Amino acid sequence: MTGAPERPWLPGGMPGTGVTKLFCFPHAGGSALVYRDWQAEAGDGLAVLPVQPPGRAERGRERPHQNIESFVDDALDDLGEAFTGDYAFFGHSVGALAVYLITRRLVERGAHPPRHLFVSGRAAPQLPDNRPPLRGLPDDRLTAELDALGGLPQVLRREPELLSMFLPLLRADLAVNETYRHVPGAVLPVPLTVFGGDHDPRADTEELASWLEVGSDPDLFLYPGGHFYLENRVPELLHTVRTKLGR
After folding, report:
1. Contact yes or no for 119/23 (Cβ under 8 A)
2. pLDDT at 231 over 60
3. What CATH number did the domain enclosing 32 receive?
C-alpha cells in the first residue's frame, strides 16, 4: 500500500489490484493499530486493511460514535466506494457487530457484498444481552473489568493521565455495543466464519454458535483463551481466513 490515505477510515490507504481486501474492524477502545502486524502473517494475495473509527489515533479530535446506526452510516459514507471487487470483512467484539450490520446494509441496498464475513469475540446479534452494562461503571470498576478481560495495555496501567484520556473512548464504544437492539432480518447470502475463545466471559460457546443462524455456509472455530484470545492466535486465524478465501 502506498500514498497518503484517501479516506479517514483507512489510514494505511488502499492496496493495488489483484489482491483480496480484508477490512478489519477493531474491538471497543481499539484502533487500527491492533491489526498492525497482521499483514506480515497474511501472505501474498491478501491485503489486510485496518479500519480506524473516529476518536482514536490520528482521528483523536473527532467524536467517537455512541450508537451503531451512526457508526454504520459513517463507515458506509466514507468506505462504501472501497467495498468493491474481491473483499471480505473481519471484526472482533464490537467490530463483529459493525461488520455484520454493514454487510446487512449492503445486501439490503443491492450493493456488492463481501465475499466472506469473519466475526470474532461477540455474542450473536440476535441474542439479548443479559450482562450488566459496562459503559456507566465508575472509572476504577471499568478499568478492573477491562483488566480482567486482558484488554488493558501496560502503558495505560503505568500512566493514569493516558488512562483518563482513554476511558471516554472506551465508554463510547461500549455504548455502541450495549445499546444495540436487534431487528430480525433474512439470513445473509454471504459465507460466515465465527472465531472465539473457549473461555471468553463476554461470548460463551453457545453465544458464538448462534452466529451460525445468520449467515450462509457457516463455520465456527474455537481457540484456547478468553476475550482477547486472538492476540496469540493470529497465524492460525489468518490461515483459516486464507483457506476460506481460497488464498
Report:
1. no
2. yes
3. 3.40.50.1820
Helix (H, G, I), strand (E, B) or coil at 145: helix
Domain count, the chain: 1
In angstroms, the CA 133 to CA 131 distance is 6
Residues 6+ apart with CB under 8 A from 134: 142, 145, 174, 178
Q: Which H or E run includes 195? A: strand 191-197
- DSSP for 102-132? HHHHHHHHT----S-EEEESS--TTS---SP
What does the pLDDT look like over 12-43, one tens digit per residue? 999 988 899 999 999 999 999 999 999 999 98
119 domain-assigned: yes
Q: Please check whether residue 225 lies inside any domain of the structure.
A: yes
Cell numbers given for 198:
473457549
DSSP state string for 9-53 = TBTT----SSSEEEEEE--TT--GGGGTTHHHHH-TTEEEEE---
Domain that holds residue 193: 20-244
Longest dimension (CA), the chain: 49
Please provide the size of the chain in residues: 247
Residues 139-149 have a mean pLDDT of 93
pLDDT tens digits, residue range 192-215?
999 999 999 999 999 999 999 999
Q: Is residue 61 part of a domain?
A: yes
Is 15 contained in some domain? Answer: no
Instruction: Output the pTM of the full model.
Output: 0.95
pLDDT, residue 213, reads 96
